[in-house]
Write a structure and sequence with these properties.
By secondary structure, this protein is an all-alpha fold. It is built from six helices and no strands. The protein has two domains: 59 residues; 53 residues.
């Protein structure tokens, strides 16, 4: 099966006619009928943008399944929320550690003054 045959099979699987498909992806009317072997990257990009579930590897090579499971927007949103929450947690932990570091430096300075140790000599 050639590229154009796979493209037509995909169009049929979506329950669309070639004209309706061409409209959805921004092709001129009759474009699909004129394709002999393959199409350019810009046209492929239009197809994938309109049909993100289409497995581009299948369309080009015939390998794999016709469609793949696209990343669900809800899953992306949830991942983004989790990343933001973790970012806030790590930032707060970092600020806590900076404060603890400041307090420890002050404590070290007090101990040095109490023992007569010079500030530039840690031992």
């Amino acid at each position: 099966m050639e590229f154009i045959d796979r493209l037509k099979l995909f169009i049929k699987s979506k329950g669309l006619g070639q004209t309706k498909f061409e409209e959805r992806v921004g092709f001129s009317r009759g474009y699909i009928s004129k394709v002999k072997t393959s199409i350019g990257a810009d046209k492929l990009s239009n197809i994938v943008e309109a049909f993100p579930d289409l497995n581009l590897d299948w369309l080009i090579t015939g390998k794999g399944k016709m469609t793949s499971t696209p990343v669900q927007p809800a899953a992306v949103e949830q991942t983004t929320d989790t990343l933001e929450e973790n970012s806030v947690k790590y930032k707060n932990k970092y600020l806590e550690m900076l404060e603890e570091n400041r307090v420890l430096r002050l404590e070290i300075e007090k101990l040095r003054k109490g023992t007569g140790t010079r500030a530039d000599n840690p031992f």
